[in-house]
Amino acid sequence: MEARTAIALLLALVVAASFLCDGVHSRHHHHTKRHSVRPPSHAPGPAGPRRAPSPKHGSPSAPPPARTPPSAPPMPGAPAPAPSDDGDNVYDVIKDFGAVGDGVTDDTDAIKTAWDTACQDDGEGVVLAAAGHSFLVHTTTFTGPCQGSVTLQIDGTIVAPSEPTTWPANSKRNWLVFYKADGMALRGSGLIDGKGQKWWDLPCKPHKGGSTHGPCDSPVALRFFMSNNVTVQGLRVQDSPEFHFRFDSCRGVHVDSLSISSPALSPNTDGIHVENTQDVLITNTVVSNGDDCVSIGAGTLNVHIENVTCGPGHGISIGSLGKQGSRACVANITVRNAVIRHSDNGVRIKTWQGGSGSVSAVTFENVRMDAVRNPIIIDQYYCLTKSCENATTAVFVSDITYAGIRGTYDVRGPPIHFGCSDAVPCTNITLSGVELLPASGDTVDSPFCWNVYGNTTTPIVPPVACLIEGVPRNVDEASSLKCY
């Protein structure tokens, strides 16, 4: 009897131990949610869709708010969030849509079809151009609005055709266009290569002695048009034939951790151009190019630029504004914690004679200059020829603050240049904590001022004794020009 009891107890302990082990194991085991991809019947590729293997280095997060910089910013070129196994449909342009990815075969249709398929589906979709592949893509437009949100994940390389003659005659102004693509994201750890060298060498280019008014259209690499709540993150972009990025008529744009590069003499290759757009955040980005690092055009409101490094190039520019008598409105622009190196300009506002409208509420704060030719410049006599004449109207420039602008300047010109309109003077220009020394030699050049009203709140190096105190007599008339 005692033996039977002992055997029964032993069996019970074995069963209990087995149950407990199964329970512990079950708490650590989870299933991966999988989603099917449904390419349309005309899409190239295998008959049955396949789910792409998911990278292991992170998962996508929701786009950050438009005005809040990250507390721990990633370095430019760092891997952007990758497609996740949990909740995203992944549309692999090679596995599901027949892209070749050898850099020679035209993969335009495959990538465009993947976008269209993801755009038509509900939920969160990721169009994946995988690492280790190079995709030749001709000029194309990625069109919304989409049913859900679409992320174009570039972990490989996207290359443009290198020969200008191969581009359609009526499509030489843009390469990759995102039109009405609300809520989309363009991100990844890959490269977008505009192959701009042969465009820059065209005889009509200004640095080749040609005229920009001739038949010299060159494509913008990435243009976002009428697209709201857009995120661009983590990519390297190089050698655009013209502007690298252009945002037109958008609202809610976040650009983060980009590396943008082209040669110092490449013409008109602005890094990021913003026009008729509002609520823009540009952070943690490095730009080295042949023109403006960031350029802000007419109709731009609420732009915050932080932790951006520029140079060589033409610095951070507002303008040019008011060309051919046009009305231009720009307000609420902040540039903070930037570095500008070996550039023609540092922080610049440039307008044409004869325009109207206003530039107001602009702050440049904590900007480091390194051998910059014109660290601080307002130029209301901007002109590309010698035939421009003075006019009785101008874009009104007011409420501009320069705080903590320090570093060195190229001695070919004065470190501070305020050239304001005879008819519409600049008003309420404020400087504090400005220290600019020559990059070579001991002579400190005096600032230049023309018809500029403002003040300094701390000692300035070099001293700016040429500011006019108070307000101009026609300040009420000039203030009526304000757009906001």
UniProtKB/TrEMBL annotation:
Pfam family, one: Glyco_hydro_28
InterPro entries named among the record's database cross-references: Glyco_hydro_28, PbH1, Pectin_lyas_fold, Pectin_lyase_fold/virulence
Subcellular location: Secreted, Cell wall
Annotated signal peptide: 1-26
Span list, region Disordered: 29-89
Biological processes per GO annotation: carbohydrate metabolic process; cell wall organization
Catalytic residues as annotated in Swiss-Prot or TrEMBL: 314
Keyword list, A-Z: Cell wall, Cell wall biogenesis/degradation, Glycosidase, Hydrolase, Secreted, Signal
The keyword rRNA-binding appears for this protein: no
Coiled coil feature spans: none
Ranges of biased composition (kind: Pro residues): 61-82
One example GO MF annotation: polygalacturonase activity
Homology family: Belongs to the glycosyl hydrolase 28 family.
Protein name in UniProt: Polygalacturonase
Organism annotation: Triticum aestivum (Wheat)
